[in-house]
Design a protein that fits this description.
This protein is α+β, with helices and mostly antiparallel strands. It is built from two helices and two strands; from the N terminus they run αββα.
């Protein structure tokens, strides 16, 4: 299992239609462009807290390995 460290932390607001805006600094850091694909996973801890994790869509092969 991989261990990750936090490189960026900020709050965003959920807008109309459930949309969130990824801050420009983060988009630049991740080299995201309009129309890029992101994979989203929701994780739940033993005490019921949930968090959302996103990564670039082309890295989705890693998701298949985690789910299997």
């Amino acid at each position: 299992m991989a261990i990750y460290r936090t490189l960026y932390y900020t709050e965003v607001t959920v807008g109309v239609g459930g949309r969130i805006t990824i801050p420009q600094e983060l988009r630049d850091n991740l080299h995201l462009s309009p129309k890029d694909s992101l994979t989203v996973r929701v994780e739940e801890t033993g005490d019921g807290r949930r968090q959302m994790v996103m990564w670039r869509g082309e890295d989705s092969d890693d998701l298949e390995e985690m789910i299997d």
